[in-house]
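This entry is listed below:
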Amino acid sequence: MINVLFVCLGNICRSPMAEALFRHLVKKENLTNKIAVDSAATSSWQIGFPPHEGTLDILKRYNISSDGLVGRRLKKEDFWRFDYIIGMDESNIKNIYRITGKPNHPKIIRLLDLTIYRKDIPDPFYTGDFDETYRLVSTGCRILLNKIRREKNL
C-alpha cells in the first residue's frame, strides 16, 4: 500500500480538502486497493474537530465525500508510515521537518512545487477564498497522482 499524507497548519481547511479530493481521484482511478490517504496538522488547535465549513461546502459542491475527516496532529512516527508527506505551504514544510526530524527529505514535498505555480497554497481560514484553494489543491492533487502512478508503476 502506498500511503499519502497531506499536512497544513490546523487540518481543517487545506489538508482535509486535499485528503478528500485525492481519495476521490484514487477511487475514480480504481486505485483504492493501492493508495491510502490521510491528513494532519502541524498545530494542535483543531484536534478532533471536523473540517471548516468552507471546506465542507466546497467538497459538497463538487460531490466529494467528506466522510471520516477529523483533525489530528502530525506525529514523528508518521514519517515512517507515509511514502509521501505533502505540505501546503513553506511554513508547513518547515514544521514537518521539525516534527519528523527529517529536514530536506525527498518524501516531504510542498504540493505546488509539483506544478508550474511553485508557490504556497493560501490558507482560506485567513483569506476566505475556498474556491482558489480548491483550484490549487485540485491541480496539485492531479499532478501528484500522476507522479505516484509513474514512480510506482500503477
Helices lie at 14-28, 53-61, 78-81, 90-100, 124-127, 130-152. Residues 2-152 form a domain with the Rossmann fold fold (CATH 3.40.50.2300). The mean pLDDT is 97.
